[in-house]
Design brief:
By secondary structure, the protein is mostly beta strands. The chain folds into 4 domains: 138 residues, Sandwich (Immunoglobulin-like), CATH 2.60.40; 108 residues, Immunoglobulin-like (Sandwich); 102 residues, Immunoglobulin-like (Sandwich); 106 residues, Immunoglobulin-like. The chain is built from 3 helices and 42 strands. Strands 1, 3, 6, 7, 9, 12 and 13 form a 7-stranded mixed sheet that branches. Strands 24, 26, 28, 30, 31 and 32 form a 6-stranded mixed sheet that branches. It starts with a helix and ends with a helix.
Length: 544
């Protein structure tokens, strides 16, 4: 019995051991496929743009670096889970730095281990920023998994949210800085003028080899010889020193009176020998309106085939004074001629005026109508350059041709075979007084003259005077009308001597009423005597 009992006991222990072994083995397998992984992201922030210039708008470029920390390792996918920052947001604040942050919160998404470049953050550096080093706080917020508890059935995650403030160091550079103090210009629409700009080095360091480049932002404003930019050399530029640079600018004739933007860039070498360019300075250039003139009280007395005048007043409408102005006269009609096309005027301040008068001749080939006359003012601007104004037009009515004189013979009959003093009346048919009028008559057979000249000392417009010439009619002159022609030489009011056209008037020759035998009777008698003589001569010869 004892032996059977021992055997039974051993069998029971063996069975228990087997059962125990079968239960322990699955437990070991279970421990090998489950466990925990825990850790966290380790994010740092740094910048690649650490220097800024006062009074500028710049970009702060940030980079996130995630080193990741594993406190208990495990499968790679779970380690990546606990070291990745999810839903990362970044917000920079000015802190004690003299800057203004113009960009709000930036989303960076998920940041695994490694580096991620963020979108640039726009900042404005204060104009009065004191050079030096400043710390800018950057707040980084994200979600991450702190713990992964996993087994064959799956994994459980424990998530946390973290917000931390990091700091990046930036430096406001100790360097030259430039500000426009004053701008003056004599620029005028349609003309060339000066642009003067005074600039001060308001920075903390001197600049060497400095030059200032001005660039026009408009086609209507150009520099020098029609260039869009011009550079002025300055040289060394001390702190607090003001330098004035001058440029020559021109405005197009069709430019409007408004402000034109000009950019100024200062190129220089800093104290470290590095070539730099300042921030762009903007100035406005506002020109004055184009120089203009006007005509007033224009009068004309032009006539086909005669000399006349064009007179009036020219006014300087401004906006500037003009020196050595000359009024220029022109006409597209070749039948209108001016003795001198330029009329000198006195210097004219804005609002001043001056009178002018042109002697204008109209040829016989011209037509009686209204003609447009063009006048312009040539002058010198304040740089001594000659400029010509826009055309000043005026209309002139050209009257029909009118004879200078009206000539008529008061006693226009003469008996054949007689002579008489012929009275000739002359009327001034023009608009100007005439003097020293010398008349000469021209006759042909059977008329003649032993004294064919006359003179009138003065003849006002519309007035008449008479002179006489001797006129004879031949005895054999037939009763009818014969022409007598007259030419006149005279002096105009300006002293010029002119010769008129030829005027022809009729003279009536009539038969003699006494004081001699009539020509017809004498001729008839001669014929009768001749006939009788021939008849007598024939009869005498017949009787023999």
């Amino acid at each position: 019995m004892h032996r059977d009992t021992l055997r039974s006991t051993l069998l029971t222990l063996g069975l228990a051991l087997v059962l125990t072994t079968s239960m322990v083995t699955p437990a070991v397998a279970q421990t090998a496929s489950s466990g925990q992984v825990y850790g966290s992201p380790d994010i740092d922030v740094f910048t690649s743009t650490s220097e800024f210039e006062p009074g500028t708008q710049s970009q702060l470029r940030l980079t996130l670096r995630n080193n990741g920390e594993i406190d208990q390792s495990g499968p790679e996918r779970y380690e990546s889970r606990v070291t990745t920052a999810r839903g990362v947001t970044v917000e920079a604040r000015p802190g004690d730095a003299p800057v203004e942050i113009n960009t709000g919160t930036i989303g960076a998404g998920n940041v695994p281990t490694g580096t991620v470049d963020l979108s640039p953050i726009d900042i404005t550096v204060s104009e009065n920023a004191t050079p030096g080093t400043y710390r800018i706080p950057v707040e980084v917020s994200y979600t991450y998994t702190r713990l992964v508890d996993y087994d064959p059935s799956g994994a459980e995650y424990t998530d946390n949210t973290r917000t931390r403030t990091h700091y990046v160091t930036v430096r406001v550079r100790d360097q030259p800085r430039f500000e426009v103090v004053e701008t003056e210009t004599t620029a005028q629409v349609g003309d060339t003028g000066d642009l003067s700009v005074t600039i001060e080095n308001t920075g903390t360091r001197a600049a060497t080899d400095a030059s200032v480049t001005a660039t026009s932002r408009s086609d209507e404003l150009v520099f020098g010889t029609a260039s869009e930019s011009s550079t002025a050399q300055v040289g060394r530029w001390a702190v607090g020193e003001r330098r004035t640079v001058n440029y020559t600018v021109s405005l197009a004739e069709d430019a409007t009176v408004r402000g034109y933007t000009v950019n100024l860039d200062v190129d220089y070498t800093d104290t470290d020998g590095i070539a730099r360019t300042s921030r762009t300075l903007n100035i406005g250039v506002t020109p004055v309106e184009e120089q203009s003139f006007s005509l007033e009280n224009v009068t004309t007395n032009l006539r086909v085939g005669a000399d006349g005048t064009v007179s009036g007043t020219v006014v300087n409408d401004g906006p500037k004074r003009v020196d050595d102005p000359v009024l220029r006269f022109s006409s597209s009609n070749p039948n209108i001629n001016v003795e001198s096309s330029e009329y000198a005027l006195p210097d004219l301040e804005p609002g001043d005026s001056a009178d002018f008068s042109y002697e204008v001749g109209v040829s016989d080939a011209a037509n009686a109508n209204v003609q447009q006359l063009n006048l312009s003012v040539a002058y010198r601007n304040n740089r001594g350059n000659t400029r010509v104004s826009d055309s000043l037009t005026t209309n002139a009515e050209i009257a029909p041709h009118r004879d200078r004189f009206v000539v008529e013979v008061v006693n226009n009959t003469i008996e054949a075979g007689s002579e008489r003093a012929l009275r000739v009346r002359v009327t001034n048919n023009g608009d100007e007084p005439l003097t020293n009028i010398e008349a000469k008559a021209f006759v042909s057979d059977p008329l003649s003259s032993g004294n064919d000249e006359g003179i009138i000392s003065e003849l006002p417009p519309g007035e008449s005077e008479e002179f006489t010439i001797a006129l004879s009619a031949g005895a054999n002159a037939l009763p009818k009308r014969y022409p007598v022609s007259f030419d006149f030489q005279y002096e105009m009011p300006d002293g010029d001597t002119e010769v008129s056209q030829t005027y022809t008037t009729p003279i009536e020759v009539i038969e003699s009423e006494g004081g001699g035998l009539p020509v017809g009777l004498i001729v008839g008698a001669v014929i009768v005597i001749g006939v009788l003589g021939v008849f007598g001569w024939r009869r005498f010869n017949t009787d023999e």
